[in-house]
Amino acid sequence: QVQLVEFGGGTVQAGGSLRLSCAVSGRSLINYVMGWFRQAPGKERELVAAVRWGTSATYFADSVKGRFTISRDNVRDNVKNTMYLQMNDLKPEDSAVYYCAARHFTSDQYGNWGQGTQVIVSS
After folding, report:
1. CA 7 to chain centre
2. 43, 92, 44, 94: which is closest to 65 by C-alpha?
3. CA separation (Å) from 41 to 8, 21, 45, 115, 120?
4. pLDDT at residue 84 above 90?
5. Residue 39 contacts by C-beta under 8 Å, 6 or more apart in sequence?
6. Are 95 and 16 in contact (CB under 8 A)?
């Protein structure tokens, strides 16, 4: 079982930056895809970025391309890892609860979730 804990949320002014961290433990992530999701009040949860741990292939939603980057520890086979979401040029519409999540690369469903961390971007 994969355990996930997010850190780093907070309040920032528009144009500012935040870095979110996701501490991951429980098993090697070599065969996992790790994602960052967000959910704003009254909106559906959306995938904003993802990385396939074993290959470093990444995905970004159009709304965050060029502003957000995703990175991870270099120790790919460790059972404890950290994933990061660097968020730059933040906009009020980026305000949401951000979650990290994990899925095996053979599955299309994210089955492991963190508790979420709040990001508020003030205008």
Report:
1. 10
2. 94
3. 20, 22, 10, 16, 12
4. yes
5. 45, 46, 96, 97, 99, 116
6. no
Neighbouring-strand partners of residue 71: 84
Q: Does 7 or 78 have the greater pLDDT score?
A: 7
pLDDT tens-digit map of 39-63: 999 999 999 999 998 888 999 999 9
Q: Is 93 helix (H, G, I), strand (E, B) or coil?
A: helix
Taking CA 57 as the corner, what is the angle to CA 34 and CA 103, rounded to the nearest 5 degrees?
A: 25
Separation CA 56–CA 79 (nearest Å): 17
Residue (of 18, 9, 24) closest to 101 by Cα position: 24
Sequence length of the chain is 123
Beta bridge mates, 24? 4, 81
> With bands split at pLDDT 50, 70 and 90, how would you rate the model's confidence at 80?
confident
